[in-house]
Write a structure and sequence with these properties.
heterodimer, A: mainly alpha, 2 domains, B: alpha+beta, Cytochrome-c3 Hydrogenase, chain B, three-stranded antiparallel beta sheet
């Protein structure tokens, strides 16, 4: 049979217990003995192993969605000086379970005017990219479903599929609010895919591969240090891609009710919600794999543990932005992408290209040189782009943020005249 | 070739998260931009003015609570001042001071609601709202001490207040006055300098002072447009001529100015509260000689006060009976809303919601 999948220890452990493969990496069989299935049934062992792995990973992520929902609500409660959910289970841990049960038992309403096929297909289409991305993420040393040699390209291609689902939901609902949300989402997602893809180019130059496993292996110094500008752009763009605050215009509840899923109820709404939280977790996982050296770390914690430990601050930061910042307006969001992030991403590509031309095969010492140079580039370029494109030309042309903020004057004094 | 397009008409409300009640806006959108807006009100009309004609002068106080239900104390105050003028009742000094204390606390509470829900309209996920509600909770607790009710207070009575404040109130009030300036600084740190808020609020929803005066817009909205008009200062009622306070004025007349004026007015209200505590004198909280059923002489009376949202007044006509012949309210919310269409045309949808939020209306008062 193949050669690649047996390098995956997760796969090997299950497969070698089942099959009588004569592969050298399976010598001695698994810990259950020399293969349970009779010879000639290696294909069945392969199939069972693949299904088991897919089920385990999907359910782990779905379970972590529950944990993340709970953690986010508790954290938001703390940020907002209240206690958050604390009724069901210890510290409210069963609240998401109760929510899930409630969502499943709710009546599923399809609006009369809705385009039934499109309306019903949208939540499923929404779940597809979220579940497919987790195939290529290296959750630890040898813990991955597939080590695609085009892993990063795969992620970028698959995540853009969620745009389809949002348009289908907005169009199929025949609801103007939903349509507004869908149109905003399309404009935003298409704009932010460009800086997201560009910001990864620097990483690719350093790693020399599109495979996420190779990218993790290349990070002797975590790429958040070597590629700070790329990290910044990628992080902002991925928050926009997953429709989280401050970029949650697609479901801006104060303007559009619930945006593109206004008309969904019951488990269809649950699927949208689930897909959004899965996307959040998976984007944190991609950030960890690409910029925070994946599962690498000191060996007293297993690599999968390191991966999760590194995901926690990323997710915390995403929740923190949601608690602290108001929403941006859609035109400002697009301006920010086209006049800010894309320029920064191009600067990062140019600098990374020069650096990898100078040091084609960087040693540790040269990597630290790159860190110093790239942090300088980060500060200079962010300040320069902010100075040139920063003032929100879209909303108020003659307004400069550099000035001191206006303050009320006490009554009786004449106005300053410069207002 | 030009693309054929037509405006999308969307009903924003009456069930919408950002209409502050049951307001309905029929908005024509060209893409994201508002091309026309029509305001449809009346979903919360309860006929309070007509109901007032069936009740005695004292009973009407409970109706005024339900008009602007986030600022019941100032509604009570406006109504009671008109009754006192109509019937020629002289309030007791302690009653007046207590009315001023409750009114200024109510002004802070109303501005807290305005700021918190404005941030909610901006999409701030509840954090500023929770902070402002935390402080409002303090004020509500103090109201509970004063009169036993939290929202619909019915605290004010002709010649004073319904009962004297208990001694437990004063330490609470003292602690509030000490704590609140820091809390306001906290909002300012969270909100005022935030880049997203600045870019979404500055230069948006501008309206000229002339237009505002022509439309008889009052309150913080007018003061954010550079007009120094505060009835507490220009036409002092109660004992506002005995306290020192500033009127924060801004010239920008945009959404940010309207927000910031409210923040600074809360600080001024704290100053007034401090002076009220210093000057309050012992004595009866109301005149026991004043009967429950008042029969004012024939005539009419109108006393404007500076409510949290603008000039608030009750025009009362008496035919010598036990209930008002006519009770007409001047609701600041409704009049401040009249220029909304001019303010939002040409703005994106999100800015329309924010502009609507900075006007700070209360549907209970708009529809009455």
């Amino acid at each position: 049979m193949g050669t690649n999948f047996l390098d995956n220890s997760f796969f090997r452990n299950i497969y070698c217990n089942l099959s009588k493969s004569d592969d050298i990496r399976c010598s001695g069989g698994g810990w259950l003995g020399d293969g349970i299935l009779p010879a000639g049934f290696e294909w069945l062992a392969f199939l069972i192993t693949a299904v088991v792995m897919a089920m385990v990973l999907i359910n782990l992520v779905l379970g972590s969605v529950l944990i993340f929902i709970w953690a986010e609500r508790r954290l938001l409660g703390r940020f907002q000086s209240r206690s958050g959910p604390n009724r069901w289970g210890p510290y409210g841990t069963l609240t998401p379970v109760a929510d899930a049960i409630k969502t499943m038992f709710k009546e599923d309403i399809v609006p009369t005017a809705a385009d039934r096929w499109v309306f019903n297909a949208a939540p499923i289409v929404m779940m597809v990219p979220a579940t497919m991305v987790l195939a290529v993420i290296p959750w630890g040393t040898g813990t991955f479903l597939a080590d695609l040699n085009i892993g990063i390209l795969f992620i970028i291609a698959i995540t853009s599929l969620s745009t389809f689902a949002i348009v289908m939901a907005g169009w199929g609902s025949q609801n103007r609010y939903a349509m507004f949300g869908a149109m905003r989402a399309v404009a935003m997602l298409i704009s932010y895919e460009i800086p997201m893809a560009l910001s990864l180019l620097g990483v690719l130059m350093l790693a020399g591969s599109l495979s996420l496993v190779s990218v993790v292996n290349a990070q002797d110094v975590p790429f958040i240090l070597v590629q700070p500008l790329g990290f910044l752009v990628f992080f902002i763009a991925s928050i926009a891609e997953i429709n989280r605050a401050p970029f949650d215009v697609a479901e801006a509840e104060s303007e559009l009710g619930a945006g593109y899923h206004s008309d969904y109820s019951g488990m269809k709404f649950g699927l949208f919600l689930n897909a959004e939280f899965m996307a959040t977790i998976l984007s944190a996982a991609v950030i960890v794999a690409v910029f925070l050296s994946g599962g690498r770390g000191w060996s007293f914690i297993p690599s999968q543990g390191w991966f999760i430990i590194k995901m926690i601050p990323v997710l915390f930061f995403i929740v923190w932005t949601r608690a602290a910042w108001p929403r941006m307006r859609i035109d400002q969001i697009l301006t920010f992408a086209w006049k800010g992030l894309i320029i920064l991403a191009f600067i990062n590509v140019a600098v990374s290209a020069i650096l990898s031309f100078v040091w084609p095969d960087p040693t540790m010492r040269e990597l630290w040189f790159m860190v110093a140079i790239n942090f300088g580039v980060l500060i200079v370029s962010v300040m320069a782009v902010g100075a040139w494109f920063g003032p929100q030309g879209a909303s108020a042309p003659n307004m400069s943020h550099g000035d001191a903020l206006p303050r009320p004057r006490p009554a009786g004094q004449p106005s300053g005249g410069d207002s | 070739m030009t693309l054929k397009s037509e405006p999308v008409i969307v009903n924003v409300g009456p069930q919408h998260p950002s209409t502050h009640g049951v307001m309905r806006l029929r908005v024509a959108f060209d893409g994201e931009l508002v091309t026309d807006a029509e305001m449809i009100i009346g979903y919360l009309h309860r006929g309070s003015e007509k109901l007032a004609e069936e009740r005695t002068f004292t009973q009407v106080v409970t109706l005024t609570d339900r008009m602007d239900y986030v600022a019941a104390m100032t509604n009570n105050q406006a109504y009671i001042l008109a009754v006192e003028k109509l019937a020629g009742i002289e309030p007791t000094p302690r009653g007046v001071w207590l009315r001023m204390i409750s009114a200024e606390l109510q002004r802070i509470a109303s501005h807290l609601i305005a700021i918190g829900f404005l941030m909610q309209d901006l999409g701030a996920m509840g954090t500023p709202l929770m902070y402002t509600m935390r402080e409002r909770e303090d004020i509500m607790d103090m109201f509970e001490l004063m009169c036993g009710a939290r929202i619909t207070n019915s605290y004010h009575r002709p010649s004073g207040v319904f009962q004297d404040a208990p001694p437990e109130l004063w330490p609470r009030l003292e602690a509030f006055l000490v704590e609140m300036p820091g809390r306001i600084d906290e909002y300012e740190q969270l909100i005022s300098g935030n880049e997203i808020i600045l870019s979404r609020m500055r230069g948006i929803g501008i309206i000229s002072p002339e237009d505002m005066i022509n439309a008889s817009i009052t309150g913080p909205m007018l003061r954010a447009g550079g007009v120094d008009w505060d009835i507490r200062h220009q036409q002092p009622y109660e004992y506002y001529d005995r306290v020192e306070f500033d009127r924060p004025i801004m010239d920008e007349s945009d959404n940010y100015a309207r927000y910031l004026v409210r923040v600074y007015e809360m600080r001024e209200s704290l100053k007034i509260l401090r002076q009220c505590i210093d000057q309050i004198e012992p004595g009866p909280a109301r005149d026991p000689e004043v009967p429950f059923v008042i029969r004012p002489p024939k005539g009419d009376a109108y006393v404007p006060i500076e409510g949290p949202k603008g000039e608030l007044g009750f025009y009362l006509v008496s035919d010598g009976g036990i209930s008002p012949y006519r009770c007409k309210v001047r609701p600041p919310s409704l009049l401040n809303l009249t220029l909304l269409r001019e303010m939002v045309i040409g703005l994106p949808m999100a800015a329309m919601i924010v502009t609507f939020g900075t006007v700070d209306i209360n549907m209970g008062e708009v529809d009455r």
